Amino acid sequence: MQLTVLSDPAGLEATRLTLETTAEDLKPLVTEIRELALRRPPASLGRIVRLGDQLGELLLAPVADQLGSVSRLGLSANGPLSDLAFGVVRAPRSLDPQGRYLIEARTLCWIDPALGDGNAADRPASDRPVALAIADAVYRPPARPLGASMSDGGISWRQHAARRNQAGTIRALGLPVVSRFGQAASPAIFWESAESYAVRLLHLAVEAQIDPANPDRSALLLSPERYDEQAIPVGTGQLASRLALERESLVVLSGLDTGNHGIGPGPFVEAFGAAGAGSVVASLWPVVDESTTHLFDAFYEKLAEGATPAGALRDAQSRLLAEPLRFEQGEGREPVEFDALHPYHWAGYRVYRGSAATCG
């Protein structure tokens, strides 16, 4: 695994550190953390913490001296570590006497050169950019949702509200928001919207899956039950040819499911990079919409204050760790109260940038 260390003082070159460890050593740890995170019973939290401590000693303790004064880390890895929710790694005591999660002590950014190859570099900036939000109200989470929910015609109104709230948080950025929800989130409407606006921010609150047998069939799924009709393939070059992303645009995939294939969100980062994205925020697993809404509320709030995407994500994740959450379902419905301390809710999200320099 290679770590690129970004120093805070301007003008200093990045330091690259190579850690010698084998896939055979790491894969069982990464797989168990993922399984425990997706299962998310309270009892699994202690085991996740112990695994995080083990990974911290394995990955970071050997280079603790070099990392001591560094507050930002750019990460790049192949094999099992590409599927590791790195935020759940615990800082070794030699690096952090409190032994906190790594995200509590460092800002993390995942480096993917695919984001440096986009076609938006020569595209003139529009004077009327928008944030385009696509949210599918009939999305079904993989686990039992929080609390009870009402439904009508197969649509969970609690989740529908969550998806709408997710998109609503984008307004903190001051951009006009173009939203497409539920039945309006069809592939045809997606392409019509994507081709009609100069998109500076694209927020996709839909399911997305990597096909392990054929990465070219990796797709955004606007209706998981109807793949052929409602899928938007990302491995065919369609995004690069039809999506009008502005320079330095941000793409957020809030419900990605990479499976357990050791490749992370690679096909999606590559596809949106080819379409011109400067940053991609993606998850390693689909998360319930209540905690996702809170996370992106804090994320967009910090972006509006001038934070980098990596800094904004760290702040948002830290907030989920710090206090219980309250989700408002809408008029006439009782709010849902819960805590998002479990890594399931926050640890799977990453910021991807094209290089160590852009991570900074």
Task: Jot down its keywords.
single chain, 360 residues, alpha/beta, 2 domains, four-stranded mixed beta sheet, globular
Summarize the structure.
The protein has 360 residues and is α/β, with parallel strands linked by helices.
Helices and strands, with pairings:
Elements (H helix, E strand, L loop, with lengths): L1 E5 L8 E4 L4 H17 L4 H16 L4 H4 L4 E5 L25 H4 L1 E5 L18 E6 L15 E2 L2 E2 H12 L8 E5 L5 H10 L2 E7 L1 E3 L9 E3 L5 H4 E3 L4 H5 L2 E9 L2 E2 L8 H9 L2 E7 L5 H16 L4 H14 L2 E3 L8 E3 L10 E5 L2 H4 L1
Parallel strand pairs: 3-4, 4-18, 5-8, 5-9, 9-13, 10-14, 13-15
Antiparallel strand pairs: 1-2, 1-3, 6-7, 10-11, 11-12, 15-18, 16-17
Q: Quickly give the structural class.
A: alpha/beta
Q: Report the strand count.
A: 18
Note the beta-strand portion. 15-25%
How many structural domains in the coordinates?
Answer: 2
Cα end-to-end separation: 20 Å
> Oligomerization state of this entry?
single chain
Query: Strand order within the widest sheet?
Result: 2-1-3-4-18-15-13-9-5-8
Determine Rg (CA atoms, Å): 19 Å
CATH architecture of the largest domain: 3-Layer(aba) Sandwich
- Report the major sheet: 10 strands, mixed
